[in-house]
């Protein structure tokens, strides 16, 4: 896990969640762009990925398999154990570091974005701001959507129209379901592939600052 202590008060915890085949360093390029009141942690996912890096679900498929067959994308059932582990990690780390994490913010890329959606919908009392970058909504969350688990929450969603890993149509459909769950969406779409564009990064910075 990588850590950046807050440089100003009052501080707030931000959890950055990497995607499939990533690790705790994958999203660190963003850290310097975010407000200095954030105490940032970037955990490493618990499961080895194929052919490298790490995954938030056990027995992960390869990126190529995910591209070929969208039905193999991870479901709530596959991601929930790691989500529960993340909550425990946040609690244990915040207690040791003296950081208030009764509510925290989180952003994630790709599979990490799916994890952000799981955390927000399953633990809405713990998560405040959510950033879903080139991500998607896993299956199995219908009950939480119907219960409007995200009522009153602001969610930032960014996606590329040329994304071949997670097609933009899926991102738009996921966004509609987040709105059904009660979320107010800030959406940034740009003509890029499976990455965060410069324009959407600026929009994300603004979202986290306000």
Layout of strands and helices, then pairs:
Blueprint: E1 2-4, E2 12-17, E3 38-42, E4 47-48, E5 54-55, H1 63-68, H2 76-97, E6 104-109, H3 111-122, E7 127-133, H4 142-146, E8 154-160, H5 168-180, E9 184-190, H6 198-209
Parallel strand pairs: 2-3, 2-6, 6-7, 7-8, 8-9
Antiparallel strand pairs: 1-3, 4-5
What does this structure look like?
The chain is α/β, with parallel strands linked by helices. The protein has a single domain (2-209), classed as Rossmann fold. 33% of the residues lie in helices and 21% in strands. It contains six helices and nine strands; from the N terminus they run βββββααβαβαβαβα. It has helices at residues 63-68, 76-97, 111-122, 142-146, 168-180, 198-209; strands at 2-4, 12-17, 38-42, 47-48, 54-55, 104-109, 127-133, 154-160, 184-190. A seven-stranded mixed β-sheet has the order 1-3-2-6-7-8-9, with helices on both faces. The longest helix has 22 residues, at 76-97. The protein is globular, with a radius of gyration of 16 Å. The model has no long low-confidence stretch (mean pLDDT 94).
The CATH H-level superfamily is Alpha/Beta hydrolase fold, catalytic domain
Structural class: alpha/beta
Extended strand count: 9
Number of domains in the coordinates?
1
The CATH topology, please?
A: Rossmann fold
In DSSP terms (H or I, runs of 4 or more residues), the helix count works out at 6
Question: Could you give the order of strands across the largest sheet?
Answer: 1-3-2-6-7-8-9
Sequence stretches where pLDDT stays below 50 over 5 or more residues: none
Beta strand %: 15-25%
CA radius of gyration: 16 Å
User: In sequence order, what are the helices and strands, one letter per element?
Assistant: EEEEEHHEHEHEHEH
